[in-house]
Design brief:
By secondary structure, the chain is α+β, with helices and mostly antiparallel strands. It has four helices and 19 strands. It folds into two domains: 2-75; 92-455, Porin, CATH 2.40.160. The longest helix has 41 residues, at 35-75. Helix 1 (2-26) packs antiparallel against helix 2. The strands form two sheets. It has a 16-stranded antiparallel beta barrel. Strands 8-9 form a two-stranded antiparallel ribbon.
Length: 456
């Protein structure tokens, strides 16, 4: 850098000297030089000197800018390292609307050029059309769903996201024709405090297990949800603090979330069995007053550990739970505990499952203890036939469900299905289900389901 500066200055000085030499060499060749000619020549030399000084000053500014950029580049992590990021409200690649905080590269460049992410708006989501044929009934298209997610990034730290479900179903109970329902699945304001902490507030997807955040809708490789998901709330109004902390340099991390929310409520305000409402408590009671539907808030969270031991081979396990009163008098508590696990053995094999147990205190039956679990696996046939048409786009999926409602009924369901990838985001799904219930309300029912799913 210094040698370059000296060479540049020396070149300019040489030019000036050459001009002066030309002046002195020119004078003897003339018999006489007038005062006007000499003054004009002197003025030209002075102007040339000023230009040289200006060029030197501009060159020094350029070198200062280059040094600043090199210092910024030196702060960026080396290739192969991963900067820690906070976990978003809908978990990474498997969740809806997950958005990591700005990277160190963004921060470094924005210091020079200004913020890179201001007032950005996008829409993602999914859509499904479903056909069902149950034993003893005629088949038909029973559901069409459109679930857009709107993302608005106000700055590098502030994000707003909202997801809706527009669902069309035919032959609505107690009514003719079809009905269209619109549900607000979630709507949150996310504020990134730093690389490890994100504050979320609004109608949140609750981190009770991973299904709600990572597998619902289009991301589910089977056309319907596991039975045990009916035991825990999928969302709730409140606030949470969440994030992840990297461990080592191989991609392992520890993730956490802690939340406070209204929690489940009571359909009729009482604490009787059968009146638990997992998703209807939005702070307005039956009399229309703006108050919580029970005597206290619900509190909970999730802790999880993710460990990859080589490419496409990893395991994650987590524990989550929540507790709080659910009747209006605040005398009866609802508590839930959930364990989840997900494993990948190469790019073709995936296994995951969840177990949930709940404790529901009631006025009439004491504490009932519903529980359930499921285990689901998938195998992509591209692992054995990567170059065979049709086969390479097919994935086989299976699931086993078991639940107990705490009132004497046990239900188990076995599902065999497939996913055919028309494209990476357009799926044709099919499943055949065997379901059997025993106890207080025994029943047996088999059905076949086909679904077209599109994620955008």
């Amino acid at each position: 850098m210094a040698n370059h500066q000296r060479n540049y200055t020396g070149t300019c000085a040489t030019l000036a000297a050459a001009c002066m030499f030309g002046v002195s060499a020119y004078q003897p060749a003339k018999a006489a030089v007038s005062d006007e000619d000499f003054a004009a020549l002197k003025q030209a030399v002075e102007q040339l000197g000023k230009k040289v000084q200006t060029l030197e000053a501009t060159h020094e500014q350029d070198q200062a800018t280059i040094r600043k950029l090199k210092n910024r580049v030196a702060e960026i992590p080396a290739k192969g390292t991963v900067a820690p990021v906070a976990e978003g409200p809908k978990g990474g690649a498997e969740g809806k609307g997950s958005v990591p905080p700005a990277s160190r590269l963004d921060t470094a460049v924005s210091d020079i050029t200004g913020s890179l992410a201001t007032h950005n708006f996008s829409m993602i989501g999914d859509a499904e059309v479903q056909f069902v044929k149950s034993r003893g009934s005629r088949g038909g298209f029973v559901m069409a769903d459109f679930a857009p997610i709107f993302l608005y990034r106000a700055s590098d730290r502030v994000l707003f996201e909202a997801g809706f479900d527009f669902m069309l179903q035919n032959n609505a109970p107690n009514g003719g024709g079809y009905t269209t329902t619109v549900n607000l699945s979630f709507a949150t304001i996310d504020y990134t405090l730093n690389d490890y902490f994100t504050l979320v507030a609004g109608n949140m997807l609750l981190p009770l297990g991973t299904y709600s955040e990572r597998s619902a809708g289009w991301l589910n490789k089977l056309p319907d949800a596991p039975l045990m998901r009916n035991l825990v709330p999928g969302n709730g109004i409140g606030a949470q603090l969440r994030g992840s902390i990297p461990i080592g340099e191989k991609g392992a991390n520890f993730s956490y979330s802690a939340f406070v929310a209204n929690g489940p409520g009571s359909i009729d305000g009482s604490g009787r069995a059968g009146q638990l409402d997992l998703g209807g408590n939005v702070g307005i009671n039956l009399a229309g007053n703006a108050t919580n539907n029970h005597g206290g808030m619900g509190y909970g969270g999730r802790l999880a550990y993710f460990y990859p031991w080589k490419a496409n081979h990893d395991i994650e396990f987590g524990l989550s739970g929540m507790s709080g009163s659910w009747d209006n008098a605040g005398n009866r508590n609802y508590s839930a505990g959930v364990a989840d696990v997900a494993m990948h053995f190469g790019p073709s094999v995936e296994i995951k499952g969840e177990y949930a147990k709940t404790w529901v205190a009631t006025d009439d039956l004491g504490t009932i203890k519903p529980e359930g679990w499921y285990l689901q696996g998938g195998y992509k046939l591209s692992g054995i036939a990567p170059d065979t048409a049709f086969i390479k786009n097919l994935e086989l999926v299976g699931r086993y469900d078991w639940t107990r409602d705490g009132l004497g009924t046990r239900t188990n369901r076995t599902t065999a299905g497939f996913v055919y990838y028309l494209t990476n985001t357009l799926w044709l799904e099919g499943a055949y289900e065997w379901m059997h219930s025993s106890g207080a309300t025994p029943s047996t029912g088999n059905q076949v389901i086909f679904q077209i799913s599109y994620g955008f």
